[in-house]
Specification:
With 307 residues, the protein is α+β, with helices and mostly antiparallel strands. It folds into two domains: 199 residues, Endonuclease I-creI (Roll), CATH 3.10.28.10; 89 residues. Helix content is 56%, strand content 17%. The protein contains eleven helices and ten strands. The chain has a four-stranded antiparallel β-sheet with strand order 1-2-4-3. Strands 7-8-10-9 form a four-stranded antiparallel β-sheet. A hairpin with an 8-residue loop joins β7 and β8. α2 runs parallel beside α5, α9 packs across α11 and α10 crosses α11. The chain is rod-shaped. The protein starts with a helix and ends with a helix.
């Protein structure tokens, strides 16, 4: 069964990035998150991109060919039993077409691979959103709406992890950064921040699903609180009625019940006849106020204590 994060990525992979600058930013982030260098002696540098999603692999190929129709790519699929999933591999062949493309993306500098933060690609707001979409597609995850809000971007290098962390902080997100073995995880835990991030990268439907789930959880929590309060009130009423009945029976056993004033005797008989009702209901049966009933019951308990 596909995960919620997989569904979000599949939907994002179908979105359009019309501007060339946004396509460049998204592709750069995708490759930063999921690609490793592949060197071909005599032909220069290439890349090997890995992902668990077929839609993401197709997205990478489409962006590559949108930027350079001459780029040579191939796709393979591997089964990895230890991960219990398939891995889709996009190979970007080394050659004359790959070098200028990788240089444009910021991956090559004077023919050497560069581990940068791609800040030169992020001058525009639209490009920053596209870059974060690529980072999520290449190494992101998000909890299902019914669970606690949590979104992660998992980077393979400290440079990239810190770059994503700094970018999100500058954009006002309450973002955290931690290392997990050889990986660097940038994360969001606040529900509003997770929804804002998803909306920013184009996953509005996912953000709405989380909002609906949060509202449902809040309504359930309110109902539970009301039920708990009502149950506590019922328990208190039952305990109080039991104490009142015990006092009345003590007076009856001592032969003191008939000696009570008429109003107290009426109250005692009503309580014996209706042991399950609340004090307010008992007051209504006796045609007095709740405070008046409370006063009568205190007198009955005081009389019982004298026995």
């Amino acid at each position: 069964m596909p995960s919620f994060a997989s569904d979000v990525k599949n939907a994002l992979s179908r979105t359009d990035a019309d501007r060339v600058c946004c396509q460049t930013a998204e592709l750069a982030a995708l490759l930063r998150m999921g690609a490793s260098a592949a060197t071909d002696a005599g032909h220069g540098r290439g890349l090997r991109f890995e992902t668990t999603g077929a839609a993401v692999a197709r997205r990478v190929i489409r962006l590559l060919h949108n930027m350079d129709a001459e780029i040579e790519t191939s796709v393979a699929m591997e089964r990895r039993p230890q991960l219990r999933r398939r891995i889709y591999i996009v190979n970007i062949a080394a050659g004359t077409a790959a070098t200028p493309l990788l240089t444009r993306l910021g991956f090559l500098e004077e023919g050497e691979l560069r581990a940068g933060t791609d800040m030169a690609l992020l001058r525009k707001k639209c490009c920053r959103a596209a870059y974060l979409r690529g980072a999520f597609l290449g190494g992101g995850s998000v909890n299902r709406p019914e669970a606690s809000c949590h979104l992660e971007l998992t980077a393979r290098s400290e440079t990239l992890g810190r770059g994503l962390h700094m970018l999100l902080r500058r954009m006002g997100f309450p973002v955290g950064l931690t290392d997990r073995r050889d990986l660097y995880v940038v994360y969001l835990k606040e529900g509003d921040a997770v929804m804002d991030f998803l909306s920013l990268i184009g996953a509005e439907e996912a953000a709405e699903e989380i909002e609906v789930a949060r509202n449902v959880k809040e309504v359930r929590a309110q109902v539970n609180r009301l039920v708990n309060v009502e149950m506590a009130n019922v328990r208190r009423a039952v305990d109080a009625a039991a104490d009142q009945l015990a006092a009345i029976e003590r007076l009856a056993a001592a032969g003191r019940l008939e000696a009570l004033p008429e109003d107290l005797r009426e109250t005692a008989e009503m309580r014996r006849a209706h042991p399950e009702i609340s004090m307010a209901e008992l007051a209504a049966l006796c045609h007095i106020s709740k405070s008046g009933m409370s006063h009568r019951l205190r007198k009955i308990r005081a009389a019982a204590e004298e026995v």
